[in-house]
Design a protein that fits this description.
alpha+beta
């Protein structure tokens, strides 16, 4: 059996797929269609309220020091 590594090698999948598409191969020839509902969503931390305070996580900080939290606006 083929054993995969711990990381996803996009180079080994996306580059050949892109080359086939650029050469006119139909998208349907690259593989079977899959149901998007069966895909795993990205895991985002969920904010919550504890003792009247919002507990959140910083998702990213830009070079100006602005940060985005995982809190939806009310």
């Amino acid at each position: 059996p083929i054993v995969g590594g711990a990381t996803f090698d996009g180079r080994d999948v996306f580059a050949p797929a892109a080359a086939h598409l650029c050469n006119g191969v139909p998208l349907t020839d690259l593989g079977p269609e899959i149901d998007p509902a069966g895909l795993m969503p990205g895991v985002l931390p969920v904010s919550r309220e504890e003792n009247g305070e919002i507990v959140a996580e910083v998702l990213w900080v830009d070079r100006f020091g602005n940060c985005q939290l995982n809190v939806d606006p009310l």
